[in-house]
Every structure is written in structure tokens, then in C-alpha cells.
């Protein structure tokens, strides 16, 4: 009986000690910023699904485990659940010419902006209803020698519309370098898409293009809100 009581005491002590609160502080630092076009100063819009990520590796832990911060649809990002430390930081799999990794001290409220060159610029874009169609016209500036693979016009009820988030798409394969003076035209027929684009409702549209690179993401025009009749 005495041996049983001793064993129960040991088990109770172990349970109590395992329930004690650890002494590690939680994350108190944060990092935010934006992706800016080096030529125009404008934010570089992103896909909300499978868009650009920021790879960060905290120093002082061997090789270090990679963490990834998601970039928002408007080209900004924010994460306030990081530990204060030195990190190696690099945006990856984006819609701009890759940038080199950099070491950066993250503390409370840290800010780090990236000034980059987009693979493509969708410029002089105009998206409007013309009769029974939504028609987009635009030009492209190509900042790399890699071929432009595809252009597209995308529609969705959510303002984060894009190639990865659309109800309807009108796309055209290009597979060539482009003439910056050429005006591209894409049309979306409303009657044939009425089950998705319901008359009397409003939808968001934007045009985009992507280079022929497996990790490259789309570059976009500004989003336009249109009432479908």
C-alpha cells in the first residue's frame, strides 16, 4: 500500500509539472510592407490564390526553417506573429524580376518595402460593356525577353478577381514577344455566360497577362466594377 501511495504521488507530481505554463515569450514582432513598381511607383497587384510569397528564415537555429508570408491582392503584406530576430528575407514566385535575398532585423512594427520591376505592365486598359459584351482593350509593356504566354479578361463577384479566382474568363494564347504599341482586345459574351454573370448584378473585371515561366504569376490592370444587364 505504501509503495502504491508513493507511485501515485510521483504520477501526480509529473502531471502537475507538465501542466505548468512554459517560460517562453510569444511572438512580439511584426513585418509589413508593399511591392512597388520601380518605374510608376504604383502597387503591383497580385493573385490572392497562389500569388507572390515572401520567404523568411530566422537566424540562429542551424539551417533554419523557411516560413512564408502571403502577399495581399493589392500588393501589400502584413504579419504580426513573428519573433524579434535577424531574418533572411526574399520574395519568391512573383510577377516581377526576382530580387536577391537580404538580411533584415525584425522587431515590433518593422516595415520592409520592395521596389521591383514587373515582368509585364498592363497599360491603357479600358474595360466596359458594349451591347451584349464586356470588352477589354489594353497594351503591354514587356520588361523581360521571355515570351508572353497568355492574356486574359477575368470576371468575379469578388474584387480579388484574377486568373486563379474567376467565374468567367476570356483568354488568348500569345506565345511570343509583344509590340508595345499593339492594342489587345478581349471580349466576354454576356448572354452565353448569364448563368455565371447574372443580369442585374455587379461584377469585378480585370485584364492580365503572364510570361512563359513556370513560376511566374500574372500581371494585371486595375479592377473595374461593372453592372451587368
Describe this structure in words.
- The structure is a single chain.
- By secondary structure, the chain is mainly beta.
- The chain folds into two domains: 29-116, Immunoglobulin-like; 120-228, Sandwich (Immunoglobulin-like).
- The protein has one helix and 16 strands.
State the main characteristics:
Immunoglobulin-like; single chain; 1 helix; 229 residues; mainly beta; 2 domains; disordered N terminus; elongated; 8% helix; five-stranded antiparallel β-sheet; 47% strand
Question: What is the number of independent domains?
Answer: 2
On the 0 to 100 scale, the average pLDDT is 91
Q: What percentage of residues falls in helices of 4 or more residues?
A: under 10%
CATH architecture of the largest domain: Sandwich
Distance between the termini: 85 Å
Strand content: over 45%
Low-pLDDT segments, ≥5 res:
3-22
Sequence-ordered SSE layout with sheet pairings:
Layout: H1 2-19, E1 29-37, E2 53-58, E3 66-70, E4 76-82, E5 85-92, E6 102-106, E7 110-111, E8 114-116, E9 120-130, E10 133-142, E11 148-156, E12 168-176, E13 184-189, E14 201-211, E15 219-220, E16 224-228
Parallel strand pairs: 1-7, 1-8
Antiparallel strand pairs: 1-4, 2-3, 2-5, 5-6, 9-10, 10-13, 11-12, 11-14, 14-15, 14-16
Amino acid at each position: 500500500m505504501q509503495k502504491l501511495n508513493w507511485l501515485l504521488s510521483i504520477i501526480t507530481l509529473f502531471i502537475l509539472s507538465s501542466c505548468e505554463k512554459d517560460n517562453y515569450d510569444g511572438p512580439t514582432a511584426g513585418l509589413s510592407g508593399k511591392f512597388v513598381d520601380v518605374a510608376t511607383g504604383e502597387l503591383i497587384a497580385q493573385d490572392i490564390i497562389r500569388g507572390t510569397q515572401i520567404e523568411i528564415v530566422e537566424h540562429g537555429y542551424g539551417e533554419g526553417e523557411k516560413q512564408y508570408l502571403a502577399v495581399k491582392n493589392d500588393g501589400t503584406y502584413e504579419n504580426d506573429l513573428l519573433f524579434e530576430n535577424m531574418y533572411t528575407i526574399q520574395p519568391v514566385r512573383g510577377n516581377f524580376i526576382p530580387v536577391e535575398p537580404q538580411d533584415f532585423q525584425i522587431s515590433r512594427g518593422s516595415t520592409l518595402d520592395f521596389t521591383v520591376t514587373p515582368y509585364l505592365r498592363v497599360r491603357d486598359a479600358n474595360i466596359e460593356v458594349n451591347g451584349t459584351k464586356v470588352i477589354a482593350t489594353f497594351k503591354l509593356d514587356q520588361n523581360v525577353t521571355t515570351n508572353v504566354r497568355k492574356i486574359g479578361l477575368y470576371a468575379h463577384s469578388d474584387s480579388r478577381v484574377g486568373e486563379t479566382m474567376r467565374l468567367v474568363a476570356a483568354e488568348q494564347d500569345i506565345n511570343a514577344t509583344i509590340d508595345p504599341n499593339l492594342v489587345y482586345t478581349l471580349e466576354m459574351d454576356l448572354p452565353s455566360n448569364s448563368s455565371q454573370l447574372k443580369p442585374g448584378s455587379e461584377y469585378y473585371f480585370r485584364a492580365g497577362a503572364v510570361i512563359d515561366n513556370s513560376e511566374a504569376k500574372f500581371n494585371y490592370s486595375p479592377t473595374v466594377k461593372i453592372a451587368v444587364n
